[in-house]
């Protein structure tokens, strides 16, 4: 601190104060805690310093700005010495006798004003704020979350004020999804709704998250880990049923590729022909296409290679292995799952969807494309492939940190042999008379 502001002629004293290289602070001689700050730029402003009780320490110092110094009169531009003293005395009385905390009170008032402004915020507007701040940073730029929210959430609660949303609205959304039999999607969408409202709470747009007291188990029950594996007889059955399923040949090929390579169906449908070295029978899946964001090398067995050869005869002139009609991208990663699901329904078919509603139901029940990946890995281990090699073929991340860091052997020869064993086994199962694909023609 530098000197003090005198009792009289305080305005003249403050007016004559000259700035220095660093800010200077001049205490008032009459009101304890009142300080005039003079910045190097020459600007002068009033600060009221005080202390408040704090749970962690005995006292916490606070500083509240009162405005700029003004010579001669008080207005929006600033305060004279006498006006600053009166305001400081008023605040000191509130702190001492009313347990006020001007700085914290101002912060709380600002928060309430933000919440009051947010009270006019609709759910659809909140979703856009959340999308721009969070969802766009996800791997797919938030495309899948946006699709689900716009389809099943926004039409129901989009026009509601965010403060009006109650648990009943959330259950209205999830109950409708459960009626459609998409339990897992109901849980995913519930999770997205919860994330959106937690975002609102974090940003002080909302005080209470309407999903806070809803447990995930109440949305379709507890999660059940899928363990569906196609048996040998079911694989043969699938070979007989696929030609009668009225599916595109490329879709049928994708199903067999999933079983022969143990790849995720999305990785298959996103493939480009530039990812393949057909001379060496190698498929390089880029990191951006894999779930764990790690590159993955597939050594194609003769069986898998013949599938890609057949596919190449159909789409080889395109950039993508499974192109859209417009040829400007790959088909939707859900297209195979939808086609398989449509052909395992006992109810009436959807409008403009497959009419063969039960043609792909196998002897042990409904199956999904992802079950083929699990089936392929299980077949590998049954054929004598070591579990750790099968895990590498699945491109799973090693859970043991020590092994992940120090054991760097890639298992490429063993993986190549594992895929070859799987391919030979699958080829031996399939009825040569079934109209799946002509393997000999494909290899030729």
Q: List the helices and strands in order.
A: EHEEEEHHHHHHHHHHEEEHHHHHHH
Which of globular, elongated, flat, extended, rod-shaped describes the shape? elongated
The beta-strand count equals: 8
**Structural category:** alpha+beta
Low-confidence stretches: 432-444
For the residues shown, what is the average pLDDT? 86
Give the helix level as a range of percent.
40-55%
Number of helices in the DSSP assignment: 18
Query: Radius of gyration from the CA trace?
Result: 34 Å
* Percentage of residues in DSSP E strands: 5-15%
Main sheet overview:
5 strands, mixed
Widest sheet, order of strands: 1-2-3-4-5
Terminal CA distance reads 92 Å
Structural summary, described in words:
The C terminus is likely disordered. It is elongated and about 105 Å long. The longest helix is centred in the middle third of the chain and has 20 residues. Helix 15 packs across helix 17. The chain contains 18 helices and 8 strands. Strands 1-2-3-4-5 form a 5-stranded mixed beta sheet. A 3-stranded antiparallel beta sheet has the order 6-7-8. With 444 residues, it is of the alpha+beta class. The termini are far apart.
